[in-house]
Structure formats: C-alpha cells, structure tokens
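Example (one chain per record):
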Amino acid sequence: MKNNYSLLALAVTASFVSSVCLAGGSHDGGIQAPKNDSNGSSGLSAFDITHAKVTTENKIATFHMAVATDAGTIKPTSMGQLAGSDVYSYVWPTSLDSASVGFEANAGILALAVTSHPDFDDTPLYDENQDGDTTNDGGLWHSHWVVLQPNETCGPGALGVVDIPADTQPKLPKTWPGLPILIDSPGWSPTFNSETVEVQVAFDNIVSVEAASYDGVTAALRVNESVHAPLLCVVDVMDVASGDLSLPGKVNQ
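Predicted structure:
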C-alpha cells in the first residue's frame, strides 16, 4: 500500500528518560518535529509531537514519542456509554505488513497505538489497573495494534479502523479482544515519563521491523453513534510528526 496519505486522509487514525537519556529513550535521530507554541493554552501540548523514534535491541522494538509537555495527562471525558464515546491516542503508523502481528496480509495500514477511553474496556485478557477485574479498566493508557484504511463513511478522506463484516472469519491475532474490527490487545504496557511515552514490543521477526518505516501521530477517534460499521473512526488529528504522514522514519536511524 502507498504510505503517502495526506494529513486530511489521516483525520482519520520499562522506564525511560525525560532529561537523562537511556537506551531507546533519547531524543536524537528519528523524526524531529517543531513545537507548536499555540497549543499551550489549549491543553494540546500533551499531544504536540516534538520527536518520534523506533529502535530495536535483540527481538524488542521500542516505540518512542516525545511531546511538548506532560504526555498522557489529558484523557477523554466520559460519555457514560459506548455509542459516541471518544478515544485519545499516541500512534505510530508503520509500513509493516499487517500479517506481521497476526492479521491477514495487506489488510491496511498497521499502526501501534497507545490509547485511553473511559467508556469501554477492550483489553479483556489483561488487568490494566491490577485490581483483579479485567472488565473495568477503561480510561487507563494501554496499547493496541490497529489496521487502518480510508473510509468515506467516517468523513471525506478520513481513515477508520477496518471493520470485520458479519459472517466472516479473517485471520486474527491470538489476543484479539473480540470487537468486530481489526484490533489487537497484546498487553504491551506503555511507560510515561514527563514529556515521553514509550512501548516495548517483542517480535518473532525483528528483521522485518528493522526494514520498516514509520511516523508519529496524536489523534482522537470516536465510536459510531449507532455502534455499527464503521465502528471506530479517526475524527481529529492533533499532530503528525512528519507533517504529512509520509512515514519518513527509519528504524534505528
């Protein structure tokens, strides 16, 4: 697939460092992005990307993003219901084949996302807040793999998470949470530290990751008011590291 979707087309989709840099967490290399000073008063500085990077060591890939201030401090307001509820996200769109994490091959744009959404829980296999209950973890930051495609029903030129049509059985990861969309809940825990968010992800084939390209995006998604296809659309792009979603980032560079 082509990876040169425009910004409008996206209006769609461990402990590390802050000032002291540890492996995978420094702000050198990767995609450097300018700070948007106008975001400070609106609270969007927590989603104002200044740096995105992906590095590997052995079979572990570290997805790193830095924002202007206070990563992870802003979460969606609860709607009290699934329909129409919001999802805030830090996202790394990649050129990786969707098959690399267990979906059908060439299913769309594979992206790693760190998300928060207080009105539903989509990690039934994991207890995000360690309270012994896997049904009430909505709102906590957690990770997903999602597959995105352009979907005009989400809006002109918009992207949505790919729906699974009724009565079909596509190939899915073992940790698919049971929602009728191409999403995986692998349980990789994000780490927030001041202006940074990072996720460490294990791969069987790290060579494919090292050959991949990527970008960094912060975005809001919304569940359809009818809770029907399309189930989940990207409705607001807050920032794109490259400025144009061209996926210029090269792993380990």
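Caption: The helical segments are 7-10, 206-210.
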